[in-house]
Specification:
three-stranded mixed β-sheet, seven-stranded parallel β-sheet, dTDP-glucose 4,6-dehydratase activity, single chain, 44% helix, 12 helices, globular, alpha/beta, Sc_DH/Rdtase_CS, NAD(P)-bd_dom, 344 residues, Rossmann fold
Length: 344
């Protein structure tokens, strides 16, 4: 199988590349990423052509650019898995136009190319945020109406509807996965867990929105990858699959766990004004993917969060390259090397 993975230099995408290389060493993996601020090619260190025969290739490209994407489809692709997205809610509030073009126009470009060139499977990686917010009880099911509350989640919901339309109109074999909050290695340090770990290690204030009681359902990234792998191979055409860890924690609880693990005082917590339109609670009902595809998470929260903290502590240089901006020049150099290899 030849798989086109978009956004494969980002957090979840790079973890998926690592997962697929280990799980399916005979597969050919084509990784496309625009290398925006959140893309980091060092996330992919160690990914080489497999002993199982599978190739690996990286291409720097923007999914919104049809002319750049089309040659990749012309060369033949069996499946597309679209991880590429702008995903930070705060950035979407400040610059919503970037989210609309990348998350909606980009997804449509990929969909239309997949239809044109007969790609057998298209998977759209979405988010539980398209459902909006929950009260103190209840879970998001696949049948929950879409009610996005931020420009980010609205752009993801729009892409989901396009994916659905391409199935209904053209008969494409598509799936949409909607995951809860991921955490684990290689996450860009604008997100809650790596940000708090980084600042705690430096004894800097930890900015916590509002009262810190917003609830998220935390999912270790490798569990997410295993779910997407199952959807790729066994997902029923046109179906949506929720992926959640059933690990509900308030932001304050997550921060407290990090401080305790690092031996840092709670006095580092600094409450800051709440985010605009901040959803209060997310929680996923993942019974469908468990029952129909046999998926189950392998990492309980206590194990996953400890492994995550240990990874960031042990990879201080990775974090330092991001905070200093050095990773951007490293991306440029590595991407140029890849281009020269392709042309030769």
């Amino acid at each position: 199988m030849k798989i086109l993975i978009t956004g494969g230099a980002g957090f979840i995408g790079s973890n998926f590349v690592h997962y697929m290389r280990k799980k399916h060493p005979s597969y050919d993996l084509l990784n496309v990423d625009a290398l925006t601020y959140a893309g980091n090619l060092t996330n992919l260190d160690g990914i080489e052509p497999s002993e199982g025969g599978g190739s690996y290739r990286f291409v720097r490209g923007d999914i919104r650019d049809r002319a750049a994407m089309e040659p990749l489809f012309q060369a033949g692709v069996d499946a597309v898995i679209n991880f590429a997205a702008e995903s930070h809610v705060d950035r979407s509030i400040a610059q919503p136009d970037i989210f609309v073009t990348t998350n909606v126009v980009g997804a449509h470009t990929l969909l239309d190319l997949a239809r044109t060139y007969g790609v057998r499977k298209f998977i759209q990686i979405s988010t539980d945020e398209v459902y909006g917010t929950l009260g103190d009880s209840g879970l998001f099911a696949e049948s929950t109406p879409l009610a996005p509350n931020s420009p980010y989640s609205a752009s993801k919901a729009a892409a989901d509807l396009l994916v659905r339309a391409y199935h209904e109109t053209y008969g494409m074999d598509v799936n949409i996965t909607r995951c809860s909050n991921n955490y684990g290695p290689y996450q860009f340090p604008e997100k809650l867990i790596p940000l708090m770990i980084s600042r705690a290690l430096q004894d800097l204030p930890l900015p916590l929105y509002g009262d810190g009681l917003n609830v998220r359902d935390w999912l270790y990234v490798e569990d997410h990858c295993s779910a997407v792998d199952l959807v790729l191979h066994r997902g029923v055409a046109g179906e949506v699959y929720n992926i959640g860890g059933r690990n509900e924690r308030t932001n304050a609880q997550v921060v407290a766990t990090i401080l305790e693990a690092l031996g840092k005082p709670a006095s580092l917590i600094a409450h800051v004004p709440d985010r605009l339109g901040h959803d209060r609670r997310y929680a996923i009902d993942a019974d469908k993917i468990r029952a129909e595809l046999g998926w189950k998470p392998e990492f309980p929260y206590e194990r996953g969060i400890q492994a995550t903290i240990e990874w960031y502590v042990g990879n201080a240089e990775w974090m330092n390259r991001i905070t200093t901006g050095v990773y951007r020049s490293m991306n440029d150099a590595a991407a140029a090397d890849n281009k020269e290899l392709d042309e030769s």
